[in-house]
Specification:
By secondary structure, the chain is of the alpha/beta class. It has one domain: Rossmann fold. It is 39% helix and 18% strand. An eight-stranded mixed sheet has the order 1-2-4-3-5-6-7-8, with helices on both faces. Strand 1 and strand 2 form a beta hairpin. The radius of gyration is 17 Å and the shape is globular.
């Protein structure tokens, strides 16, 4: 898989999937994964999206096969956005669609507000509210230190993927997320998971799709609709179910809805 030296302390790993017709010049979709994941989280989305678009799936700094970050790394949303922008510049992609899940949706909303001239459309799937206010949670940091990331993933997985997800699938996601470096999690969680991007929402200029579920643990439909309406050209899709990582629990339905949205809203972008 290709890599890109984004800064002296970090090499990004990324994948590019493109199964579009060879006589076309497809647009590009940049996909931003969630906490304790990698670009591999989008495995079920690729077959549908990559038939029509060039799909770029980076492993965020610190995650997946990208360079792990030390526990004292100064995480900021700007640093993560700079990484993604540098990668797209490296790939010579001026304008692109963005699709993101979980905390990747927080980063993506901030990215779209910060770089309005680069983002054609934005789709955020099962993403937290713009301000969570959960605080530093020292007990969580202690759990990472003493028991590792996989212990936390196992403890929280059922709420993440909902009541309908198969046990073998839960186990796969637990092991997948559990491979994240503890040093990365210790710095990332307090700095990024609790970031407040409320002020960024009205500055998002591209067409935006927000996908949630009826019983998401990240907030009620009414709470989701309240912040979704702060984004000027946005729409909300509510799916049945009780997972909050709906990009993983319902990938085919989310991918198809996202593809439909991009083709409809992106045509005039």
């Amino acid at each position: 898989m290709p890599t890109f030296r984004v800064s002296p302390d970090c090499t990004l790993h990324y994948a590019v999937d493109d199964y579009s017709d060879p006589w076309r010049e497809p647009r590009t979709i940049l996909m931003m994964h969630g906490n304790a994941e990698s670009g591999a989280a989008w495995f079920a989305w690729v077959p549908l999206l990559a038939r029509h678009y060039r799909v770029v799936r980076p492993d965020m700094r610190g995650f997946g096969a990208s360079t792990p970050m030390p526990r004292d790394f100064p995480w900021t949303l700007d640093r993560i956005c700079d990484d993604y922008l540098a990668l797209m510049d490296h790939l010579a992609v001026a304008r692109f669609h963005v699709v993101a899940a979980k905390i990747g949706g927080t980063i993506a909303r901030y990215f779209a507000a910060r770089h309005p001239g680069r983002v054609l459309t934005l789709s955020v799937v099962g993403t937290p509210p713009p301000r969570r206010g959960v605080g530093r949670r020292p007990e969580l940091m202690e759990e990472f230190e003493k028991q590792g990331v996989q212990h936390w993933a196992r403890r929280t997985m059922s709420g993440r993927l909902g009541s309908r997800f198969p046990p073998e699938g839960l186990e796969w996601w637990i092991r997948f997320m559990g491979r994240t470096a503890v040093s990365t999690q210790l710095g990332f969680m307090p700095a990024i998971a609790d970031a407040d991007i409320t002020d960024a929402l009205p500055r998002i200029r591209c067409p935006t799709l927000v996908i949630t579920t009826e019983g998401s643990g990240l907030g009620s439909v009414e709470e989701m609709r309240a912040w979704q309406r702060m984004i000027p050209r946005s729409e909300l899709l509510v799916l049945p179910g009780d997972s909050y990582h709906v990009a993983a629990s319902d990938p085919e339905r989310c991918a198809q809805a996202t593809l439909d949205f991009i083709q409809r809203a992106g045509a005039s972008a």
